[in-house]
Design goal:
Na+/H+ antiporter like fold
Amino acid sequence: MKLNLGSLSTGLAAAAFLLSEPCLASSREHFRISNGLANVVNRSSTFKQRNNLKKSSWAAVPRGGSESAPVSTTDAGNSAGEMVVSAVKGLSSYMAGPKADTLLLLLTTALNTPFCKMLGTSPILGFLALGVLFGPNGFSLIKDVHTTEMMADIGIVFFLFEMGIHLDFKTLLSMRKDVFGLGGSQFLVTAVVVAVIASLCGLSSAAQIVLGGGLALSSSAFVLQLLKDKGEMNSQFGKSSFGVLLLQDLAVVPLLVVTPILAGGGGGFGKALGSAGIKAGIALSTIAVIGKFLLKPFFDTVSNAKSQEAFVGAILATVLGMSFLTEGLGLSNTLGAFLAGVLLSETKYRHDIEHEIAPFRGILVGLFFFTVGFEIDLDLITSKPGLVASIVLGIASLKTIIAAGVALFFGLNKGTAARVGLILSQGGEFAFVAFRLARSYGILSDEMTKLMLTCVSLTMGLTPFLDDFGARLATSLEAPPSKKKAVKKKKA
């Protein structure tokens, strides 16, 4: 028996329509279904009712499937003013939520930098101020804070990937003294000193370790953005600062592993660290294998297609894939992105990749600075200004002194050591993660967590000013004695 495909498809379409919700709803109004038999009930009266209902209102269903409020056809007799008000209300209701958040974030990214340049200030400070105003502690114009923060975290991933693009393995090996010597010493000394201060304040041993490790971290986003803006990534000052940040990214792993163990009384500490070491080995080995055998053939295949969309897709898949791999195994997601950049720096596509990824990185990193402003609690600052100011200045001063002293110990000159100390004086973005995790396990109270998040955010806001001061201080310290005397005579 031969089948007529056209008739079959038409029949299936008709059946699908008859089974659809609108049609079923219509059938229920026309028929009463009982024991599988359809009985016609008042078909003419029902038909008249439906016609009257259609005349009174209709449902506007926009693209995307969401159903808007019924639009009355009796509005034709209303005044023009009432119609305008109604239209504005409808538009406001339609734009509320994700659409408004998206437009506000894009406008902030587009206009912040031009306005800050007109005012002669750092765009980072502009993003912070706007984050305070638009965030949950300000006017609450951003409704979906969680999604915004997730997008901002991806911005840091792209930023570290771009930094990795600028470094090959030879350069990275040449920085081992800055990474493990300078960076390791800075982290350990700062963590111990902060833990001692926390013990003097009567905090528990678990809280001392979390606060010490969290405050020993600095912000990769703030520091690297300032270094890039001033073209100092390849200077001794830039390399030393970057080396410390790389070590801190590695130090995040044991800190996050230890925190849940501390909440349970410290049992299984050695087992947990061993597990973390195994996971780190798996992640790094996997990345090395991918980089050696798969990455170049993958990009060769995509590049031969001569498609910009395919090339950008390959970049995004590589960055996010490496990031998810390390994060899923308990490492920092930025570490995976950085290593992906280092691997691709060895290929002939490094400049093309850097060109394509720049717009994504720029927008999303700006979004990160914006979300840092969400953590600044204005009510807390106004209610306890002395406490907040003392903690902020204490963190910045302590970290500056320790980092500068360690830099001097490792052979940096006074000017460079001072600059390294000042630019690393803020708290880091991973402190947010560590303190929130500690709060979830009961190590830190809600009040303590809110206080620390606010203070860490404020130390980030001080970074551009401290970096500018560090540059002037370094110039003064490194100036020849003859020039110093000349400067003193002019002042006299």
